Amino acid sequence: MTKDNRAIAQSFIDAIPHSHALGMKIDFVGDGEAHMSMDYDERFIGDPATGVIHGGAVFALLDTCGGAAVISHPDHNGATATIDLRVDYMRPASPGQRIRAVATCYNRTRSVAFVRAVAMDDREDKPVATAAGAFVTGG
Amino acid sequence: MALRTPEPVQVVKQRRDDALAAIVAAIPYIQFLNVSFERRGDELTAVMAYRDTLIGNPALPALHGGAIAAFLEVAAVIELTWATAWAAIEDGTLTPEAITSGHQFALPKTIDFTVDYLRSGLPRDAYARATINRSGRRYASVHVEAWQDNRDRLFAQGTGHFLMPDAKSAKAD
To answer: ipTM of the predicted structure?
Structure first.
């Protein structure tokens, strides 16, 4: 992916108010795959005893990254919407660490795109969460 | 047998409201999402008051799927925490101070959460109620329904599994 593409994708993400509020960054996007990240922020804490960020913030990153993967597919036109998304929380994200998500649109039909995604902190060999879902394709 | 003097209604309400407020205030992400809880007896309704930062599709406009998911998950976790703590709140063994300090109190951990997006979320307040369908010693299964204008027209529903705080300290098999 060229730097220009990433800038376009980032401006697209910045235009989504909720993704912007969570500070989501595009690290790569193209051919049905998207990499995004989100810095640790104390406002995102879900468990005050440990400082671990809320599952909902991780869910939001995986959902946005999944949508970006769908849109980046060469056959895709227009926007998308999530039909359903399941997130499995494998372990708590380490407090203070950035969360990275990688989403792949591994199958598409005329109306549905199927996505898998994974979220990691600094330990890339042990996922924080995985996700699987269906998204609407252009139509 | 002499009748016991019933507890004044304000004392009962204050105790429950203070405990609920302490649970909700402990979680920063609930504040970030602008979610609050309304209580009728032990029944809770989560309210996500509309804010522009909750938007995911500015063209429609529609709420962000991630904000909806987090809202549902928050509603499920608070319902589960509330239901589990209810008896201890009522008999006075769990005080708001104890909840805030976090010593006698731990939150359930989400194992998995699935969200079904039924229609797009409109740019206005959203409501959710959670039902605990299974509550075991180790884990619980919770279903959440969310609506906006019309209770019968859900815009999202979710199901999640949660590891109970006691099971967490117990040795996993």
So the answer is: 0.94
